[in-house]
């Protein structure tokens, strides 16, 4: 019984991965990821500047900047390049005004363009009305603002908990060992980063398609993509610079090319997650059709109770 159940699960996983790969190939996933990297190259700086502007209205000091710096999944060199461009944009546009907010919003809309189109193509709804694309992109910007709010509040709460634990350690150090509790709090900060990514990708996979999508259809792909993004960030921050020296190849443009490569890899991961969501829906629909077909054949082959056989 257990062996049969494991075989069924393994067969379903194989079918799911095969369906995901077929959808990714059908929509041209690599080209979609390249398009995402192209749009992100031009709109990432305005998007970060817009989130900073929104965050400055709500949170004091550099809370928004610290949060964005923490959860943007790129290395330190690329962070410095990004923030230098953001500061240059901040100085160029001057003081915050309604006009500057509108300009930043318009420039940020293209960041999600390729992702929204790719996910809709995976679901079979490639062509969107002319007005729906900017609306969906704007909704995604609001969703990112919600992620910024979570990213500010959760670390603040964890920092408060750590302070309470340190106070308890100072008061009851001979009686209470709080080292394990502090380790749990430190680990929770990494979990908090994954949860912020999970919220962002869940919003993307639910809001981007034109079809009605349930949370039960997307939470597994969103969680998988969030974990892969954290692993990818650790690889690109710690290992990739030791394997590839982009500065030696591209000179002053090395950091920009490295950032562009990571954005492309991130696009591949996120678009693959969208294909996985569509594959789960397709396989679920096929299973329901097969079950309905088996039921109808069973009913058709059963003897009628109104006219019993002699």
What would the keywords be for this entry?
mainly alpha, 12 helices, 0% strand, 82% helix, 310 residues
Could you explain how this protein is built, in words?
- This protein has one domain.
- 82% of the residues lie in helices and 0% in strands.
- With 310 residues, it is mainly α.
- Residues 302-310 have low confidence and may be disordered.
- Helix 3 crosses helix 7 and helix 8 (179-207) packs across helix 9.
- The protein is built from twelve helices and no strands.
- The longest helix is centred in the last third of the chain and has 48 residues, at 254-301.
Q: Tell me how many strands there are.
A: 0
Total DSSP helices: 12
On the 0 to 100 scale, the average pLDDT is: 74
Name the shape in a single word.
globular
The biggest beta sheet reads: none
Strand content: under 5%
Estimated radius of gyration: 24 Å
* CA(first)-CA(last) distance: 40 Å
Question: Fraction of residues in helices?
Answer: over 70%
**Count of domain modules:** 1
Q: Structural class per helix/strand content?
A: mainly alpha
């Amino acid at each position: 019984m257990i062996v049969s159940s494991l075989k069924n699960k393994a067969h379903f996983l194989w079918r799911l991965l095969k369906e995901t790969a077929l959808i990714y190939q059908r929509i041209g996933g690599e080209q979609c990821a390249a398009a995402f990297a192209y749009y992100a190259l031009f709109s990432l700086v305005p998007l970060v500047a817009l989130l900073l502007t929104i965050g400055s209205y709500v949170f004091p000091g550099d809370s928004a900047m610290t949060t964005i710096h923490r959860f943007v999944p790129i290395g330190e060199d690329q962070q410095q390049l990004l923030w230098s461009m953001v500061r240059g944009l901040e100085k160029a546009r001057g003081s915050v005004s309604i006009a500057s907010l509108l300009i930043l919003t318009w420039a940020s809309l293209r960041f999600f363009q390729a992702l929204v189109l790719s996910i809709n193509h995976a679901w079979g709804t490639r062509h969107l009305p002319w007005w729906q694309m900017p609306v969906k992109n704007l909704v995604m910007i609001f969703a990112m603002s919600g992620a910024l709010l979570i990213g500010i509040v959760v670390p603040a709460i964890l920092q408060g908990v750590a302070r309470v634990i340190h106070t308890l350690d100072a008061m009851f150090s001979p009686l209470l060992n709080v080292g394990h509790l502090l380790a749990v709090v430190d680990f929770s900060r990494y979990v908090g980063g994954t949860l912020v990514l999970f919220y962002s990708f869940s919003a993307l996979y639910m809001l981007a398609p034109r079809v009605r999508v349930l949370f039960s259809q997307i939470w597994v792909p969103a969680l998988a993509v969030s974990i892969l993004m954290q692993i990818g960030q650790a690889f690109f921050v710690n290992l990739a610079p030791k394997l590839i020296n982009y500065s030696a190849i591209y000179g002053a443009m090395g950091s920009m090319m490295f950032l562009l490569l990571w954005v492309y890899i991130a696009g591949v991961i996120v678009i693959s997650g969208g294909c996985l969501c569509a594959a789960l829906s397709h396989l679920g629909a096929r299973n329901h059709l097969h079950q309905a077909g088996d039921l109808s054949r069973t009913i058709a082959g059963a003897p009628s109770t109104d006219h019993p056989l002699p």
